[in-house]
Every structure is written in structure tokens, then in C-alpha cells.
Amino acid sequence: MHALIVIAHPDPKSLTHAVAAHVLEDMSQADGTHSFEVADLAAEGFDPRFTAADIAVHLQGATPPADVVTHQERIDRADALVLVYPVYWWSMPGLLKGWIDRVFTNGWAYDERSDAKLIKKLGRLPVHLIAIGGASERTYARHGYFGAMRMQIDHGIFDYCGARVVTSELLLQSDAQDPSTYFETARSIGRVLFAASKQRDAA
What we know:
five-stranded parallel β-sheet
């Protein structure tokens, strides 16, 4: 099994990067039959701007640019996709949203046919979402933010392409400000990735 871990945070010392590192920690302890690749969008300088050239790709009047193709190939190689990101304004950062806007193109992630029928093209891809929020669980529950995020991201993005969201974790600010619980959750997700692969192989 090969996993792609996408990180969207500009500070390598951030909690987001630390959580991603703990996901990778359990992946690294696998039996050698599995592998992973990290796409650190900020460190790599990915350009999230959706330009006129991207609109032409969406309308299938142009081929995707090289940077988009590179990321599509990364996903094509992956048996699982893991996104680790902070919550900005009750959603994902613009850097990650722009990555999805540009990479999950019409004709590759889905196909909008002229007869209005939608073809979902990422049905083979399990997705694991790890969002890190700065507010309390009470705040998210009181305003329905997590439900809204799941509708927008889990359903609105990934279900639209046919990708199955296996994990949708929101790691929230704890009263003790102790990140150890975040890290254990991250490690458990790393274990789940490979355990699910072994179960499929045994079936």
C-alpha cells in the first residue's frame, strides 16, 4: 500500500506538522510492504490560484499544467489520501482549497458529461481527513461548525468525486492544552491505514 499525506501549513514547527509526523510515525513502523509520500504544499511552493488557464482545463479546452499533472500523478500512485490541515475560518486553508480546486479537475477527478450525467472517477480512493481547530468542542457544537465542514468537505468535495471518506477527525483545543491526545489520534490513523490494507489483501 502507498499513501499520500498532504500537509497545508506554512510553519514546519506547527501543530499541524507535528500531527502529520505522528501519522507518519506509525506508517514508518510498518512491515516494509507499505510506503508513503509527503506533499508539503507550503514548502513546495504550490500555487493555489485558480486562473483563466485553470478554467480552460475545467472546460476541457486545455490540458492541465505541469504542476497539476504532478499532483494528479501523486494521487494516482496512492492507495490512500491523508489531508492534515488547520481550520481557518471554519474550513480548510486557502492553500489546500486551491490545491483541490486546481488538481481535482473535470475529466480527471470527475466527468461532467454533456447529457448532465456525472461520472465519479475517484471511487477507488479512501480519504482520511485530519483538521486541527483552535476553538473548543462547545463552540463547534453550538454553531454546528463541524457538521457544516463535513457537508462542505466530506460530501461536497470527496463524495462528488466518488472518493470514500474513511476518517474525518476534528482535533480541538483541550482544556489542558495537552497535544498528546492529538498525537495518539494521529498514530491510530496511521495504524488504520495499513490495517485496512491488510484486511483487503486477506479477503
